[in-house]
Amino acid sequence: MTKDRDRTSMPMPMPMPMTWPAPAELPENVPWYTHRGSKILRSGDVGAIVRYYREFHRLTQTQLSEKICVDRTYVSHWETRSRRLDSIANRIALADKLGIPYASLGIADAGQQDHAEMLASGDSVVRLSRTAREGGRAADALRELDQLLRALERRACNGKAIRADMVLLAAARAEIGVALGDLLPEAHLKTAAQWTGSGVNVLASLEGEPNLSAHSLRMHGNELRKAGDLHCAVRELRRAVEISPDLGGRATASLLLARAASEQGNTVMFDQCIKQCRQAIEQDPSIFNFFINPFSLREVELRGFLLTDRIKGAERVASRVVVAGEASPTWRVIERVTMTQFYLAVGEMKAAESELRAAIFGAQELGLPHQVERAVRLAENAHLDDLVRMGKAAIEEMSDPL
């Protein structure tokens, strides 16, 4: 049978990047990203803008005048508003030297309308990408974000970004990291954590974005765990529990922390986190989301009991009936691999083979190499050679763009 015919009998894999570039370096210590700087920039007051820039960087009027190549008296006159900056050429020059958009100094900018439209639609783009990823279409999520990310990074690197750009850029970077965490093989999962981490770092420099900061930190902690950095993952997820401003966010962070704790073999922390999740759900069932729902909670509990060598607890959890209909395709694949792990632990080989075959098939269909690699390890340990070959072939298919 030819290779092309083989492909007709298996699901066509999602396009899977074997590698992905690291996030671009961004300018640091930018005054216009703070709340105060953003407000002053919107005012268009040249004197206030110049004074804030100077105070932010702790420059004297003389030092600033030398930096922007004007006489010191100009700086003094601008700040006291005793001299206007009427020339368009001079306004453009000052905007370039202070790293601010031309529109902030009242200069018509050909790209101003495009920028306004990008900001207006940017949140929707991020939400759509998240919906695509949670629906098992991580590659589509990356495509949704690509153009937005490039435009935002270009503005930031050109010194023309405003606070709203950076908030949107942080959200986009975090979402790209999570999507990469689905699409990249294990050897490259550190790249996913680099992207989520870059989103966290941008937000740390902004301050005053509690919901997005907590969400990004939760996602970063989870990607660190997947990349094998359990110590840092636990640290970040504990912090995420602390700073999440709402019950659903804290429950989500607790669930992800439970996962990391179980991989560390920390039974006490795992049990505490699961208890916190259950209490949160009992307190407010409306907090259900991609991570917090009966299906995902059972999967995290089951894997946690297996990793902490408590088979009786795993049997109790495995017997708990939950409706899979509301679970995302990604969670169903994850759960199948975990159920395989459970069946192997209790010696039910036929059930394990059935689940493992379905898991490999589903993971290939969604383009989830990390889950195929989990499945292959289980198959190797159980000496299920046919499934080992099937899994390795699936990984090869996913890495083949043709």
Automatic annotation (TrEMBL):
Residues 50-105 form the HTH cro/C1-type domain. It comes from the Bacteria. The keyword Manganese does not apply. Coiled coil: none annotated. The keyword Hydrolase does not apply. It holds the Pfam family HTH_3. TPR repeats lie at residues 214-247. Gene3D superfamilies: lambda repressor-like DNA-binding domains, Tetratricopeptide repeat domain. Keywords: TPR repeat. SUPFAM superfamilies: lambda repressor-like DNA-binding domains, TPR-like. GO terms for molecular function: DNA binding. CDD domains: HTH_XRE. This is Transcriptional regulator with XRE-family HTH domain. It comes from Streptomyces murinus.
